[in-house]
Amino acid sequence: MSDFATLSPLPGSPASTAIALYARHTAGHEERVATARRVLRQAHEQHGAGLLQSSSLGVEDMVITALLAQEGLPTDIATLDTGALHPQTLALLPAIEARWGRRVTVFAPAQEAVLSFVRDHGERAMYESIELRKACCGVRKLEPLSRMLAARSAWITGLRREQSANRADVPHVEPDGQGRDKINPLADWSWADVWHFVQTHDVPYNALHDEFMPSIGCAPCTRAIAVGEDFRAGRWWWEESAKECGLHQTHHKN
Fold this sequence. Notes:
Rossmann fold; Rossmann-like_a/b/a_fold; EC 1.8.4.10; PAPS/APS_Rdtase; iron-sulfur
């Protein structure tokens, strides 16, 4: 069971911040931070301008952006605006530029493809079947991701082993199956590590994390989680599935 499942109160309980609830120093934290810094430096040395941070704007990715800035690495940052994100998520785009002077390139799905999908299947298609939900993810996420990564040799993600059973074997560096390296600098970090770093380095984060949403995606597909629920239980909660959209196919159990 993850730290989040152990520590999170039920939604509706007295308000507190995610930092107050989850940030704590644990043994080996400094070593894990040093490893993440080294992984990022080595990725930059190997790939240079071919390296990209693919940011979901979740807390892990905000930590990675902070690490890149602290290390002085000029790595490009990009994100996917699916057209269905929470306003709290999009609010991080100007926050990143204000804090670190880094502009995030935004990739959006093809408008006609979205309109066609909604016209054919309706606004609530994702609730109808896993196949339609994955098709929605394909239109809104996978197609723009392919454009995002087209000219890149490596991409940085916020994957951590603790996030789910499907990610329990995530290494720091792995092939993505498309001829690129996938860099996972926080692979061995705990939830407590993430929030301790946020606290000690004053990293901005999505306000929805304060509302018991550890994993935040599109608004129709994200809810708060309760005590004992898995880290990603609030994603596609109506499904019995691996809780993946296909962005990280190497860790997707079909």
